[in-house]
Amino acid sequence: MSKTHHSKVLIIGSGPAGYTAAIYTARANLKPRLVSGMQPGGQMTVTSDVENYPGFAAPVNGPWLMDQMKLQAEHVGAELINDTIKSIDLNSNPKKAIGDSGDIYTADAVIIATGAQAKWLGIPSEQQYQGKGVSGCATCDGFFYRGKEVFVIGGGNSAVEEALFLTNFATKVTVVHRRDTFRAEKIMQERLFNHPKINVIWNAELDEVTGDGKVVTGVKIKDVNTGAVTDYKTDGVFVAIGHKPATELFKGQVTLDKDGYIVTAPDSTKTNIDGVFAAGDVKDKVFRQAVTAAGMGCMAALEADKYLAALEAAHAPAVKKVVNGNPKP
User: Fold this and answer.
1) Which residue from 87, 111, 182, 205 has the fewest beta carbons nearer than 10 Å?
2) Residues of the chain with pLDDT under 70
3) What is the pLDDT of residue 15?
């Protein structure tokens, strides 16, 4: 039998942004409720070693880091629920969401922290070696390829940016694109073409990632015109065909940009709907880092606290002043 749960703050999503928002709103005594979604912990749960999250001298395991954030959120008083929101009405007061469980969640403020997912090609070997040499984030994993050779798959801004970034570490970067021209901005293309470490294979696609079962050792690249397949040795493969924000649930309610990311006010996590805030990769197409997502989770919590305080003050009964024994408004 379904239940209805009301809270001052409902947080949707459980990556660094969601957990941080839960920590801050709980410490503000707002008694938040966080609905974890289909992938508790978000993209960090498929990241083996994290070296760039502040506070840890040695690399930490991504799932472990998320588990620590979860435990911290629970410790300070947040209620974490294992459910997935399937529909939501953000224009109602209070806001109303329905989970896969059938339970109804109402709240005075909502923080959206549903994140984004790297787009993948969908080939079995790509999935087999994720976290073992196949990555969707150069800024997250590029350091591990110092002095090694890597492949980048894609032809848009993401692919060109990843390739250029990887030249800071790798000795050789090979970009594979299924067409004969890039879609990336011209100035980015010029930088790529002029870089001595970068090589481009045109009219080709990744056919298979090869390895020893533990790590990537090579790739099979297929010519899209002839069908010929060529083997190459490599230490890593970066799939850079874009990201997809998890915003399908909110279409037609919050304002989205052309790529589907939630639009917020400048220097803020506020959306176009009062009492609705967005934090992390669901609104950030530029940085997409755990630490920036956590920072935005903090911002959203502080803004939600301020919003709720103003809401409470607006509905508080008027207090009459007594002047010389006579009540005054």
Assistant:
1) 87
2) 46, 48, 318-329
3) 94
Which residue in 140, 207, 235, 281 is the catalytic one?
140
Q: Which DSSP category does 77 fall into?
A: T
Quick one: pLDDT at residue 325?
60
Q: Residue 17: in which H helix or E strand, if any?
A: helix 16-27
Residue 137: active-site member? yes
pLDDT computed for residue 288 by the predictor = 85
Told to judge if 298 belongs to the known catalytic residues of this protein, a careful annotator would answer no
83, 141, 207, 284: the active-site residue: 141
- Residues 155/163, Cβ–Cβ less than 8 Å: no
103 is catalytic: no
DSSP E strand stretches across 128-201: 134-135, 149-153, 172-176, 198-201
Of 127, 132, 143, 151, residue with least CA distance to 216: 132
pTM as predicted: 0.79
